Amino acid sequence: MGSTDPRSQLQFSQVSVDLILPLRHRMLRQGMPFESARFPGDADDATVHFAAVQTADEKAVCCLTLMAAEWEGAAAWQLRGMATALELHGQGIGRQLFDHALSEARRRHPTWPLWCNARTSAVGFYQRVGWEVVSDEFEIPSAGPHVKMVYSGA
Ligand SMILES: CC(C)(COP(=O)(O)OP(=O)(O)OC[C@H]1O[C@@H](n2cnc3c(N)ncnc32)[C@H](O)[C@@H]1OP(=O)(O)O)[C@@H](O)C(=O)NCCC(=O)NCCS
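Above: the input record for the complex with coenzyme A. Below: its predicted structure, written as C-alpha cells.
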C-alpha cells in the first residue's frame, strides 16, 4: 500500500535560493516581475534558505528563508518568504518545514530570537506553530497588511 501522505514524498532541507524563487514568485509576488521575488540579503553569508522538495521532480512546494537581522538591538533571525504551494495548503507541510528550519537556526545560534513581518492572512498559521503578534498592523506596499511576530515556543 502506498502512502497517501504527501509529506512522505518530500525532502526537507537547506537549498539554494534559485530552487525556491519560482514558488516565492507564484505565492508571494504574483503579477509582479520575476525578479521581485529576490530579496535583499538572499545572497548574504548568514542567510539560509529551506524548502520541502518533491522527490519526483525536485520542485520546491514549501519554502522559507532565515536572515540575520537585529531584533530590539540584538542579533536575531528574521524569517522571510514563507509559502506553501496552494494545492498543498493545510497538510502540515509549512509546520514541518518551520520545525526543520527552527532546529537548524537553534543549532547555529542557540540564543537568537526569531521574528517576522507576517501577512495578516497568515497570522493564524504562525500562531498555530508557536508565534505571537507583537505589533499593531502596518502596510508593506508590495505585500499588504502585516504585523510583527516573534517565535515564543520552546
Ligand atoms: C501560511 C502558509 C505558509 C501555511 O502553510 P501550510 O503548509 O498550509 O501550513 P500547515 O498545513 O503546516 O498549517 C499548520 C497549522 O496552521 C493552520 N493554518 C495554516 N494556514 C493558516 C491560516 N492562513 N490561518 C489560520 N490557520 C492556518 C493549519 O490549519 C494547521 O493547523 P493545525 O495545527 O490545527 O493542524 C500558507 O497558507 C501560504 O503559503 N500562504 C500564502 C503565502 C503567505 O501568506 N505566506 C506568509 C507570508 S508572511
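Notes for the reader.
The beta strands are 10-15, 48-54, 60-68, 77-84, 114-119, 131-133, 138-140, 144-151.
The pocket of coenzyme A is lined by residues 27-28, 62, 82-84, 89-95, 118-119, 121-122, 124-125, 128 (CB under 6 Å).
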